[in-house]
C-alpha cells in the first residue's frame, strides 16, 4: 500500500468506528512506524471531511501534557486535535447514553483568544495579550480504538482522542489568576478521582498554549481570534460510565460540572 493509501485507509477505519460506535483495532499497524506526520495527515482528512459536512471548527485541544496522563497511556509527547462546535456540551445538560464509546474525563484550563497568534515564535507576552479570558473545562476524551490500546500515532490520527468538552460559565481574565500554581481537584460522584496543578500541564497551561501556537503557526494554520484552546489535563483521566457526575474545581477559575445520563434518565440531553 502507498503512504497516501495508508493514510486514507486509517481515516476510513476510524470513520467507520465513529459511525458504528464499534471501536476499531489500532491504526498504527496501517501507518509507517511512529510516523506522527502521517498520523496528522489522517487527522487532517477527518477535519476536512467535517468542515465539508458543515461542522464549525472552534479551536484546538492539546493532549498528553501531564506526566500522569502520559504514564496512563504510555505516550511521552504532547499532541493536538480539532474542536468543533457540536462537541460542546452545555453545563447542566447530561450527556446522552451511547454518545461516546469509552469515555474518560479530564479537568483542564480553557483559553479563549481575543486576537490572532500568527508567529512561529510566540512569546508569553504575545499569548497574554491575545487571550481574552480563561475558563475551567472538562474534556471528555474518547478513543475510537478498542481498549484505549493507543500509541502516539493512534491518538493523533484519532483527533487526539477528543470526544466532547464542557466549559464553565464565568470567564476570568488572566490578570486575576495564577494558572501555573492553580490547584485542580476532580470529583466523580463526590469522590476525588484526579488532582494536579497548572505546573503539571507542560510546566504551565500557558506554556502548553505557546507550544500549540508555535506548532500551528509552523504548519501554516495559526490560532486566530475567537479560538478556544483546551490546554491539556492537569491530572490523570478518570473513567466515566452512565450515571456518573463529575465536578472540577480549579483555583482562581471556579468549578465546572457534567453528568452522564443513564438509559432511564428523562429530560433534555446533549
Ligand atoms: C488522550 C488524550 C489526552 C488528553 O486530552 C490530555 O492529556 O489532555
UniProtKB/TrEMBL annotation:
Key words of the record: Lyase
Which Pfam families does UniProt cross-reference here? FAA_hydrolase
Q: Which GO terms describe its molecular function?
A: 2-oxopent-4-enoate hydratase activity
**Keyword Repeat attached:** no
Q: Report the residue ranges that make up the Fumarylacetoacetase-like C-terminal domain in this protein.
A: 96-258
Q: Which InterPro entries does the record cross-reference, listed alphabetically? A: Fumarylacetoacetase-like_C, Fumarylacetoacetase_C_sf, Hydratase-Decarb/MhpD_sf
EC number(s) from the headed UniProt entry? 4.2.1.80
Instruction: Establish whether keyword Lyase is in the entry.
Output: yes
Using the record, list the residue span of the signal peptide; answer none if the entry has no such feature.
Answer: none
The record's listing under PANTHER family reads: 2-KETO-4-PENTENOATE HYDRATASE, ACID HYDRATASE
Q: What is this protein called?
A: 2-keto-4-pentenoate hydratase
Which source organism?
Streptomyces drozdowiczii
Amino acid at each position: 500500500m502507498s503512504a497516501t493509501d495508508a493514510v486514507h485507509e486509517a481515516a476510513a477505519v476510524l470513520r467507520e468506528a465513529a459511525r458504528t460506535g464499534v471501536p476499531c483495532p489500532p491504526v498504527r499497524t496501517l501507518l509507517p512506524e511512529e510516523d506522527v506526520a502521517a498520523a496528522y495527515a489522517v487527522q487532517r482528512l477527518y477535519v476536512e471531511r467535517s468542515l465539508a459536512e458543515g461542522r464549525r471548527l472552534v479551536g484546538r485541544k492539546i493532549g498528553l501534557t501531564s506526566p500522569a496522563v502520559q504514564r496512563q497511556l504510555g505516550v511521552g509527547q504532547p499532541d493536538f486535535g480539532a474542536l468543533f462546535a457540536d462537541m460542546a456540551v452545555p453545563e447542566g445538560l447530561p450527556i446522552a447514553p451511547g454518545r461516546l464509546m469509552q469515555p474518560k474525563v479530564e479537568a483542564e484550563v480553557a483559553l479563549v483568544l481575543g486576537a490572532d497568534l500568527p508567529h512561529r515564535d510566540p512569546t508569553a507576552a504575545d499569548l497574554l495579550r491575545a487571550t481574552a479570558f480563561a475558563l475551567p473545562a472538562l474534556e471528555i476524551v474518547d478513543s475510537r480504538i478498542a481498549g484505549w490500546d493507543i500509541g502516539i500515532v493512534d491518538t493523533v490520527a484519532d483527533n487526539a482522542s477528543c470526544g466532547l468538552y464542557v466549559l464553565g460559565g464565568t470567564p476570568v481574565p488572566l490578570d486575576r489568576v495564577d494558572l501555573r500554581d492553580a490547584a485542580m481537584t476532580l470529583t466523580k460522584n463526590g469522590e476525588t478521582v484526579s488532582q494536579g496543578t497548572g505546573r503539571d500541564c507542560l510546566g504551565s497551561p500557558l506554556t502548553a498554549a505557546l507550544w500549540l501556537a508555535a506548532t500551528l503557526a509552523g504548519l501554516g494554520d495559526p490560532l486566530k481570534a475567537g479560538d478556544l484552546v483546551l490546554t491539556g489535563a492537569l491530572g490523570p483521566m478518570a473513567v466515566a460510565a452512565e450515571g456518573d457526575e463529575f465536578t472540577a474545581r480549579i483555583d482562581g477559575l471556579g468549578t465546572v460540572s457534567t453528568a452522564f445520563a443513564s438509559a432511564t434518565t428523562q429530560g433534555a440531553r446533549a
